[in-house]
């Protein structure tokens, strides 16, 4: 049986999952943290046990070499020969990567060139891909881009109403994100409904710490709430979502902030955290609101409101919907969040069944007389990465 890695790397961390193929069974996962710093932590989950170790790991190549040895030691893999390839999540694929791709040196350079669109992620991911190619020569490395699914958006959805030359000169446009997740849950919803995705209009709500909503028509993304970067769209754990840019100039002047500082505040100190002053974690904010914390309640009200507005706008974009899907941390786990989003939407054919909604599993949660099927579907980005690696790596 062959084994395939799904890799999600950042500048100092590397998350991995290992799948057996063709059975698609997830056999192990883990994370290496603090790469390039002192006291790096290697953590491997296998057969219900967590193995953790602290040591100094100077770079990603050392990290991967160490990880492979560790996996052999723990008998997750018998030998390197078993590893059939690796799939890598890449944040920015720009307009170039319209699908996942088997990566050669030219592609990796392209990933690096797209660093303008994801300065913290793309260079680190390119480094990790090179390291895998060096440590496991001859094994296919496949890039799976957060943006690819959204490259089907029409011009009217991806262009901003700013001078056209900025798009022509600098590719300034909406790219979206979470594409792998939106694609997975849309396809899964069609499968569960027993229908051809080509015949369905689906609104996918990926609501985690980051969150985005996508209008999927016939299996293709036609609009999505994240923009040039993941900062746009709905309220998130720490991100503001959409704001009037003039507000930023006003706040910057009043508070004496630089543009960089303002953008950091919008990314890291806004959203649920910024409004509630309690936490970016939905569980904490829900608990605080339940105890009577008014700002926590306002934060929730704003959160629901922004998500509902996007769902409403995508009903218009699609001309109605056949399916709405909730996924990711909040979407999968918070029944009250789903209840609030679907509240008073019967006019649009959306009616939740409260009892069915009391679940964290893959489930249809709409009432029998709801025109729109409502699903909660746990997302599985790793599985999508593995499937694309098998497909493009000829495994
Ligand atoms: P990320 O965007 O970092 O991948 P996740 O998809 O893991 O995030 O989602 C994290 C969010 O999910 C957090 O806000 C967390 O509070 C929320 N969450 C997880 N479990 C629950 C729960 N039982 N009820 C409400 N929210 C939850």
TrEMBL record:
Answer whether the UniProt record assigns the keyword Magnesium to this protein: yes
Cofactor-binding details, from the entry = Mg(2+). Can also accept Mn(2+).
What gene name is listed for this protein? ackA
Q: Where is this gene product found?
A: Cytoplasm
Q: What is this protein called?
A: Acetate kinase
Q: How does it assemble?
A: Homodimer.
Which reaction is this enzyme known to catalyze? acetate + ATP = acetyl phosphate + ADP
**Which sites bind substrate?**
89
Please give the pathway this protein is involved in.
Metabolic intermediate biosynthesis; acetyl-CoA biosynthesis; acetyl-CoA from acetate: step 1/2
The protein's GO terms of the molecular function aspect are:
acetate kinase activity; ATP binding; magnesium ion binding
Query: Is Electron transport a UniProt keyword of this protein?
Result: no
| Task of the protein | Catalyzes the formation of acetyl phosphate from acetate and ATP. Can also catalyze the reverse reaction.
Q: Which EC class does it fall in?
A: transferase
GO BP term (any one): acetate metabolic process
Record-marked site positions (Transition state stabilizer) = 178, 239
Q: Enumerate the UniProt keywords alphabetically.
A: ATP-binding, Cytoplasm, Kinase, Magnesium, Metal-binding, Nucleotide-binding, Transferase
Q: Which residues bind Mg(2+)?
A: 8, 381
List the active-site residues. Answer: 146
Its source organism is Aerococcus sanguinicola
Q: Which InterPro entries match?
A: Ac/propionate_kinase, Aliphatic_acid_kin_short-chain, Aliphatic_acid_kinase_CS, ATPase_NBD
Q: Residue span of the signal peptide, if any? A: none
- The record's principal subcellular location, in a coarse class, is cytoplasm
Q: Which cofactor does it need?
A: Mg(2+); Mn(2+)
Q: Which residues bind ATP?
A: 15, 206-210, 281-283, 329-333
What does the record give as EC number? 2.7.2.1
Question: Which CDD domains does the record cross-reference, listed alphabetically?
Answer: ASKHA_NBD_AcK_PK
Q: Which SUPFAM superfamilies match?
A: Actin-like ATPase domain (SSF53067)
**What are the leading ranks of the lineage?**
Bacteria, Bacillati, Bacillota, Bacilli, Lactobacillales
Q: Which family does it belong to?
A: Belongs to the acetokinase family.
């Amino acid at each position: 049986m062959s084994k395939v890695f799904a890799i999600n790397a950042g500048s100092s961390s590397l998350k991995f999952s290992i799948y057996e193929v063709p059975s698609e069974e997830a056999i192990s996962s883990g994370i290496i943290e603090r790469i390039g710093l002192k006291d790096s932590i290697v953590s491997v989950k296998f057969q219900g046990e967590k193995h953790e170790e602290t040591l100094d790991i100077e770079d990603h190549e050392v990290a991967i070499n160490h990880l492979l040895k560790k996996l052999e030691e723990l008998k997750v893999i018998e030998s390197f020969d078993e590893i059939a390839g690796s799939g890598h999540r890449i944040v920015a694929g720009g307009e170039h990567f319209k699908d996942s791709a088997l990566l050669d040196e030219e592609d990796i350079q392209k990933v690096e060139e797209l660093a303008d669109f994801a300065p913290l992620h793309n260079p680190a991911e390119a480094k990790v891909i090179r390291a895998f190619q060096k440590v496991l020569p001859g094994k296919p490395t496949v890039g799976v881009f957060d943006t690819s699914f959204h490259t089907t958006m029409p011009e009217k959805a991806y262009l901003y109403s700013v001078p056209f030359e900025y798009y022509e000169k600098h590719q300034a446009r909406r790219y979206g994100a979470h594409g792998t997740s939106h694609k997975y849950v849309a396809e899964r919803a069609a499968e569960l409904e027993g229908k051809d995705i080509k015949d369905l209009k689906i609104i996918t709500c990926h609501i985690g710490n980051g969150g985005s909503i996508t209008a999927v028509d016939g299996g293709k993304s036609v609009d999505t709430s994240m923009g040039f970067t993941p900062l746009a769209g709905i309220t998130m754990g720490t991100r503001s979502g959409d704001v009037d840019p003039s507000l930023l100039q006003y706040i910057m002047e009043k508070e004496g902030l630089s543009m960089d500082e303002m953008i950091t505040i919008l990314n890291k100190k806004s959203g649920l955290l910024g409004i509630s002053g309690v936490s970016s974690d939905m569980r904490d904010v829900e608990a605080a609101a339940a105890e009577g914390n008014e700002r926590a309640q306002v934060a929730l009200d704003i959160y629901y409101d922004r998500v509902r507005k996007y769902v409403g706008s995508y009903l218009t974009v699609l001309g109605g919907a056949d399916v709405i899907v909730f996924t990711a941390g909040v979407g999968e786990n918070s029944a009250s969040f789903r209840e609030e989003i679907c509240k008073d939407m019967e006019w649009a054919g959306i009616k939740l069944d409260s009892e069915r909604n009391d679940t964290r599993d893959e489930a249809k949660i709409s009432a029998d007389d709801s025109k729109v099927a409502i699903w909660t579907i746990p997302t599985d980005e790793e599985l999508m990465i593995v499937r694309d690696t098998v497909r493009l790596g000829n495994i």
